[in-house]
């Protein structure tokens, strides 16, 4: 009983000392997709931007929830003509609203941290473009968007630093666990680098 009371007291003290902070973030993502061996998947660069809320648990741990837009996907090579000597880029773009929940660990002081946690993405738009495709030549509508899954679940991990009272830098790797498409094994993978401003 005394042990339970002690745990409750420690938890109450931790909550009492906890503080909320809010901010905005923006950056770039370098993404690809894990797909079957029949495809040659190349990296694609996209933008991200959104907001976050951080709950300070104690001197070593923070819990951070985020809501941001991310442009993800991949590129692959396509030859527009049988006689073509070099390929064109076929760009697959997935527009997500992302909701990660990151547990941040500060080994020494509130400067450098290690973060990890789950992330959930909701697909808001999808398109694919072929570079160098003639503007006046129609493309067959393959209804690729109908093959996309709305929800994307995975794990994130990375490192970061609070470089001043209001500015933070974050680098993380996102490892998709679910398929981005209904048919095939298209899983989102990639790095994100962002800068955040805390109010």
Task: Describe the protein's architecture and organization.
With 199 residues, the chain is mainly beta. It is built from one helix and eight strands; from the N terminus they run αββββββββ. An eight-stranded antiparallel β-barrel has the order 1-2-3-4-5-6-7-8. The protein is elongated and about 65 Å long. The two termini are 42 Å apart. The model has no long low-confidence stretch (mean pLDDT 84).
Describe the structure in brief.
By secondary structure, the chain is mainly beta. It has 1 helix and 8 strands; from the N terminus they run H-E-E-E-E-E-E-E-E. The longest helix is centred in the N-terminal third of the chain and has 16 residues.
Mean pLDDT: 84
Q: Compute the gyration radius: what is it?
A: 21 Å
Total DSSP helices: 1
Distance between the termini: 42 Å
Quick one: biggest sheet?
A: 8 strands, antiparallel, barrel
Helix content, binned percent: under 10%
Annotation, overall tally of beta strands: 8
With strands numbered from the N-terminus, the spatial order across the biggest sheet is: 1-2-3-4-5-6-7-8
Oligomer: single chain
The fraction of residues assigned to DSSP E strands is: over 45%
Structural classification: mainly beta
One letter per element, helices H and strands E, the order comes to HEEEEEEEE
Give the overall form. elongated
Low-confidence stretches: none
């Amino acid at each position: 009983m005394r042990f339970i009371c002690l745990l409750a007291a420690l938890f109450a003290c931790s909550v009492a000392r906890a503080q909320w902070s809010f901010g905005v973030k923006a950056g770039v993502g370098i993404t690809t997709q894990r797909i079957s061996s029949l495809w040659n998947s190349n990296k694609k660069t996209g933008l991200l931007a959104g907001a976050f809320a951080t709950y300070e648990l104690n001197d070593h741990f923070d819990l951070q929830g985020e809501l941001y837009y991310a442009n993800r996907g991949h590129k692959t090579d396509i030859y527009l003509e049988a006689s073509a000597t070099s390929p064109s880029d076929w760009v697959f773009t997935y527009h997500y609203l992302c909701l990660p929940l990151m547990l941040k660990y500060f080994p020494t002081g509130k400067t450098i941290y290690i973060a990890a946690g789950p992330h959930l993405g909701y697909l808001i738009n999808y398109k694919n473009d072929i570079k160098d495709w003639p503007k006046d030549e129609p493309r067959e509508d393959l209804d690729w968007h109908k093959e996309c899954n709305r929800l994307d679940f995975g794990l994130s991990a990375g490192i970061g630093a609070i470089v001043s009272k209001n500015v933070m830098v974050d680098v993380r790797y996102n490892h998709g666990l679910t398929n981005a498409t209904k048919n095939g094994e298209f899983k989102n993978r990639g790095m994100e680098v962002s800068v955040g401003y805390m109010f």
